Amino acid sequence: MEKIEPSKAYRLLEPGPILLVTTALKGKANVMTMGFHMMIQHDPPLIGCVIGPWDHSYTALRETGECVLAIPTVDLAKTVVDIGNCSGADTDKFAAFKLETKKAAKVSAPLLPACLANIECRVADDTLVKKYNLFVLEAVAIWMDRDRKERRMLHHQGDGTFTTDGRTIDLKARMVRWREFQVAL
Amino acid sequence: MEKIEPSKAYRLLEPGPILLVTTALKGKANVMTMGFHMMIQHDPPLIGCVIGPWDHSYTALRETGECVLAIPTVDLAKTVVDIGNCSGADTDKFAAFKLETKKAAKVSAPLLPACLANIECRVADDTLVKKYNLFVLEAVAIWMDRDRKERRMLHHQGDGTFTTDGRTIDLKARMVRWREFQVAL
Asked: With an 8 Å Cβ cutoff, are B39 and A36 in contact?
């Protein structure tokens, strides 16, 4: 995996992919599936996401303030759903789903090398956590797997169906007002 | 367009489509393109989005607390980019892009019948507007165009390129833990 600038997070997250989120508390890691997230700011790169007390990962995120957002592609579709259908409270999901992990650079949560990209994050603001379970995260490091061929992200329709990335439309030439955001991934 | 329950907003927004946002202030409507948004809560349906003072629509949203989130499909790709590349300060975008509007049911902002769906919204929480330009909206009405054949959403990669919806993967049968979210659109 190759390190890329944290400020490029929007290139990966603005398309709205379903994500896997890893955390680690007292040496025990967990992974969950998350569909409620957004970019909040390009640079410094801020990300909003909803993780609630119903998620086993909530406690670890609250206590450590750290997580990794990993972007799975279509080859992992079933695993993404299955991870969301069991709990870290009684399941070692990494073992159950044969998910390899790798040490992150700046956070305690592990990276998932099976994913297209991994975004290391720290909680930047918890103002709205009590009311909406809405965390504001800052991306502090990003890793990308440059070698993988499969790059189609999954977009969750909320009910267990996913649309996969199809054709790409390139309209960069028309986006004259926002040229500064046309950085290579 | 057919009215559907506001609580179905997540079925349309969790996939992460690029959106058009309409507002209206003192009888003057405007439309902008928005890529930074997320579902925050299924029901009551809460949506997070970033609209900043650099957007002409910001003042209208602040003053009226109302907007419409419209979901364009691939046939509108160029219009989506062009709307994001001019300002309501000096352009009547509805005229410039030949965009038909229709009166909404609950808000002053207009609907865009050319889009797949229109979500009427009211600002529910502005706690983080000052800090991040992050609005929490509540969906109060949704309209869907049942007759249109083109339903492929656009996912903005942040630089003027878009991935379009490709194949659908149906994994509803595996999503046993969250059956209550499997409502028809």
From this structure: yes
Which site among B75, B119, B126, B157 would you substitute to test the A interface, given the most A Cβ atoms closer than 10 Å to its Cβ?
A: B157
Specify the pLDDT at position A56: 95
Q: Which residues of B touch A168 (CB under 8 A)?
A: 157, 161-164
Q: A4 pairs with which residues across the strands?
A: A142
A34 confidence band (pLDDT: 50, 70, 90): very high
SS3 letters across A113-179: CCCCEEEEEEEEECCCHHHHCEEEEEEEEEEECCCCCCCCEEEECCCCEEEEEEEEEECHHHCHHHH
CB nearest to B171's CB, from A136, A161, A168: A161
CB pairs under 8 A between A and B: 208
Asked if the Cβ–Cβ distance from A81 to B175 is below 8 Å, we say yes
pLDDT per position as a tens digit, B88-132: 999 999 999 999 999 999 999 999 999 999 999 999 999 999 999
Mean pLDDT for the stretch of residues A84-91 = 94
Q: What is the pLDDT of residue A146?
A: 94
